[in-house]
User: What shape does this take?
Amino acid sequence: MQPKPFLELMQWGPQGWLDEMVFATVLTLLVAVTGFLFGLVFGMVAAVAKLSESRLSRHIADGYTTVLRGVPDLLVIYLFYFGGSAVVTAIGRMFGAEGFIGLPGFLVGTLAIGIVSGAYQTEVIRGAFLAIPPGEIDAARAFGMSGTALLRRIVGPQVMRYGLPGMGNIWQLVLKESALVAVVGLSVHLSEIRLGDLVVFYETRFSDLLRQAHVAAGSTRQPFVFYITAVTLYLALTTASTWCFRRAEAWATRGMRRV
Amino acid sequence: MLAGVPLTLQLAFSSIALGLGMAIALALIVRAGLRPLSWLAESYVFVFRGTPLLVQIFLVYYGLGQFRPELQEIGLWWFFRSPYYCALLALTLNTAAYGAEIVRGGLQSVPAGQIEAARAFGMSGLTLYRRIVAPIALRQALPAYGNEIILMIKATSLVSTITLMEVTGLAHKLISETFRSFEVFFAAGTIYLLMNFVVTRLIDLAERWIAPDLKRENRVAMVPLDTR
Amino acid sequence: MTFVRLTAIAGALLALCLAPQDVSAQNRKIKVATEGAYAPWNFVNSQGKLEGFELDLGAELCKRAKLDCEFVAQDWDGIMPSLLAKKYDAIMAGMNITPKRMEMINFTAAYAAGPHGFLVLKNSPLAKMPGGEFSLTKDIAGAEKAIEELKPFLKGKVLGVQGSTTNLAWAEKYFKGVAEIREYKTTEQHDLDLSAGRIDAAVDAHSAAKATMESAIGKDMMIAGPAFSGGILGLGVAVGLRKEDNDLKTAFDAAVKSAIADGTIKTLSMKWFKIDMTPKS
Assistant: This one.
């Protein structure tokens, strides 16, 4: 077998790898979004804990952010990969998740990313909350606002406004970090699902972008082409999301005085 | 796993040292604004910050490994043959891109008034840089650079994917042999936290030494916003 | 996430539709894990699909054992933990029977066996290593004598081996301190490094080494030195199962025995390996 030229390797369809690489990009995006959302949940919980009066919860949240920000993300992913799948699968089975989707693998990978990115998000959320001038909250209280109204109309929008740039950075981080799941080989496996005569999905396996590059490099023994393609596609993702976050920031800070 | 500590530290500090030199050069080029050069430097930073380090490592190691005959011809193969040098190269190129941004931020923070005042005193060129700009920029950039060192120590874990057995590589081997993921994770995690703790302390000392007059208000926990 | 949720809903509906039916009348559904990076045993083709000797054989064994099998890809380093975590029910991934693995999981009768050795570049000094065939089960002394003769060749050289394999155990037992041993996640990666000249030899099964020699990077490669089998290198490739799944073991054992007896394994082996890898009893 002779090495194949670039265009032959990178064609769309069963003969080439382009379609696989593009689908893999979609999965990478999916992994990153899910991981980011998990992280948002962890981040909010830990931020509330850090801002709370209780010393115990402050200490726990501090421990969480210190450890997760000090330990390599790859190590956390190994922990989840080797140790977590047993736990998650057991939980999955409790809720009757059986067989039809390779969710445990996906869940394990995204949870690991979520836990790591949550540690960073904690600081952003906390910082954004502290940036709200205390006077505004007092003023709102004086108007008789309380509880959810205060959260929804005063605190929520401002945390979003102040936190958005930081969140943009963390999103970039998550996007890049999603590449780490390739090391443990996360892939979403959808097999055939029938509803009467309708076949919803048939035998589709998604791997994330870097993983797909590994697989293709291993299969064709031509690594350079696939890694350089992966670099390009990652760059496209990060560039596109930078643009999106700029738009979002412009929207969130509309009507704000610029200093 | 402790056997992996020297390799981890060695890689982290060599890449930081080499990367810092490159970062300063890049930042100065961007600042000088010479069109084609500054454009190149900016795209370099953009590409290396916009893609995962792990992909960069694979590209350097397996990707360039495909070009052995060409590399042999130009006499660089001895370098790319070794996984250690490949890892060092990828880490250096990566930290240089992040470092360039930090240095640029530091340079930007030098108040224009200070430079004008120095000029008024007849300082110029190198003296101006050496006595006014560099010290102020260094002060400003040091905390962020400390952060970068910690991130690099963490980032070295990725070189275990190209056969280098540093702390994380040994942890992985141990887990896949014993399946005791929790115990191994805690042991390896502790090693990293200890290394980070020592580095943080050293940076703190350096800051006190460089800027003893700076009021050290309760610094808001540094959020490393750039991760690989 | 939308399509995941859609899938989940679809799956739940499916479960409802199927619930009233009698399950015992159908074949039992199981998942079989393979690595997908170990040609020609199992690998991923350009359509992203799994292919190879074990995929063909697996389909055949499952038919005989009256099982509905679905193959899933799983990285080698996590292939045993994930079996224990019930991510799937069986392993067919070129995995050799060893006493150490038997502590964790169960094996069926072996469905293939072949020698292991060194893959080197044709222009390497290692290409001149003496040949021969040695069993570490039947003739340990002879095998170890052959290994001693290899040591002068391998002194200071770099060997590439996949992690957590019998090849690694063998290389570490006999060549630690003689040669530098580098561990790789997949055999594909050490093949790339062999072709790049970063390692002097890859330690692998001859079957896999031959597939590498036929690949895009293989034209300068050759198998050198003696062929070793048995003992620490494993007692044949078999289906890995959880210890408690005795009925699966019974079913697979019978299927393997019948596939050996009627020559199916030989046919498939000739198709994928070009040699007969049927285990000798």
